[in-house]
Amino acid sequence: MSLFVAAFGFGLVSMSVIAIAAVGFTMQFGITNMINLAYGEVMISSAYVAYYLNKAGISIWIGMVVGALFGAAFSFLLNRIVYAPFQRKGTSYLGMVIVSLAISLMMANLLLPIVGYYSVSYQEGTGGLIRLGAIILTTNQILIIGIAVVVMLLIHGLLKYTRLGKAMRATSANPTLARNCGIPTQRVVDAVWLITGALCGLAGVVAALNSDSFAIANGAAFLITILAAAVLGGAGQPYGAMIGAVLIGLITELSAAAWSPEYKEVVAFGVLVLVMVLRPQGLLAKRGAMAAAG
Amino acid sequence: MRGFERYKVVSAVGALVLFVACGGGSSSSGSGLGSGALLVGVIAPFTGVDAALGPAYYAACLAAAPSINNNGGVGGRQVSCQQFDTRGEPADAVPAANQMIASNSNLMAVVGCTSDEAATVAPIINRAHIPMFCMTGQTEFNKTTLPYFHRLVPADIFDAYAMVGSALYGPGHAPYKRAALVFGNDIGSQAFVAPATNAFTKLGGTIVINQPITLGAASYRTEVAAMLLTKPDVILTEALGSAGTYLKEVKTQNGGQMIPFIGTSATIDPTWFQQVRDAIGVADLTKYYGGVDLGYSFSGPAYTEFQTNLNAAASTFADAPKYKQRGSTLHLYDGIIMTALAMVATNSADPTVYNPKIKDIANGTSGATVVNTYKDGVAAIKAGKSIRFVGAGGENTFDQYNNSQSGYIWVTYDNQGNEVKVGQMTPQQTQDISAAGGI
Questions:
Q1: Could you say which architecture CATH assigns to the domain A2-278?
Q2: Looking at CB atoms within 10 Å, which of A9, B135, B356, B359 has the fewest?
């Protein structure tokens, strides 16, 4: 029983990491119509930016901020230089997915000779152990959960209470109508790439810190989990991605406690398949902040 | 994108993600050595979770090529090396092998082919009649019928037995009685589980948990918590690419205290050392780690030339010098040199002619002259002598299935990541473990 309680605690950490990444990914899709399969590589690139800063003696917490800034700038440029021109030419949705897949592969292969094929670790202590009954978490893990909570609240506040958030929702629902209503949709899209890019970069550093040791190959692994959470919650739905992250994070850890750990991802993806069969649009489609009106 | 079409694309991408996730003597019998460059194909994982394996093999080729090229080449033909990435996946390895063969008519040998892909690529390479030296310990190759297959390392079962020997008879500790098996859920790593379990339990030990872990996972917190609940004395492990993440979690959840851990010969690797050192600290690594490896002298003329060339290869591949004590790098270096010598000895660039000669040059025939370098080998062949090549990795003795066996030692690391021998099994201990393991 204590193992299940401990696994629940670990699940809280996993879901926090997944949530930060999945919300950014699904907002990108929901507002810009772009399934960005290079998301995982941008995450791992940001993790390496923080790694090199950390290696130079800079605190990982500062590195985390720089990683987020790198993710924002890189994502913004990626859209402006690569994705947007293709979209303006009317490239099909599936074509855009292939373009992003190509970018992902190019990034992975360009990064390999730069960062190497070996695993690296941040030179940062895990902090002390905190015991809450059978739940054992390190200070860093508590901080990761705290960061995720703050980020989720900020995203909620942005979407619900700010002009930019309302413009994002309008652009997501109907960009043509939004433009005709005077919303500067191009600037909204730019803001979305900056914000979601920052989430992507932050998620990369948090995920790498959470893993203790990471390598270039982790980029693709990150993407699979993020996509699962986003699809499970309802593609394009930030609140859905949060729920998806909770489910994927908890299911993987609890199933590892209940059965052989080699099946933990099988169980998580099994739940995803089940949801896709019963509710193809995802758990929160048409109810989230990004949902189309009506 | 709106409505149903949008969901179709998302569903398609989701389905794609699910799919990925689940997801001798001089016998101048040939017709000449020909002309033009020769190629050694290095087919191995260079990306993916086992990406640390390929560079060790590529380094072997980069060291062997100048040994040959600086001494007249193979009948004047220069040898070069090329990587063919399998990503550690059979599905990617098959097109890589086909492309390697179809695009290069000058292949003299192929090295690499780890347990990740050997079962799929070895038959392809064999059909193309290219001699190969594979770094796989899979039991299915113990009695292989592929004549072009060569293996310079023992099967994984012997690696597993050496680990069990280290746990039960190793120096500096009382016999470990409760072992946790933590191996990656890939084909290569899982090959150690059954022989280790058989040998350890029949000799009085208990496997408290057998934990196959998914390589490349973001974390192993629940796995480590479950493992620690079984209170093992020692962890037997091979989880390449994930060792740092797992072992760091062990230290964290165990209150900063490591548990002794014994790794396979694949853990004698500079990238593994770096990963684990960075994760748990060099002091804990050198204190709690035990490994097994084939007994190498790391000295003598063959090793000296190997190391010189390896250092020089840094201009092509910066990490090459790191592999100076990597067993597979030494063995594959020897395999390439032996192949070149076989070509010279048979005066043929036809693999069907020189392939059988590789075994003669490795094992030696009666009265053979022992040579340690390509230069000395060519000179002896030209003098009409039969030769036996004893290279950087030591002697090789191929059996009828082209498997070469040699004995294991117990090792650890020093602070700089150099291998340090700490002991070896006695013949009686070896016999006991082999009998218990079923061999």
A1: Orthogonal Bundle (1.10)
A2: B356
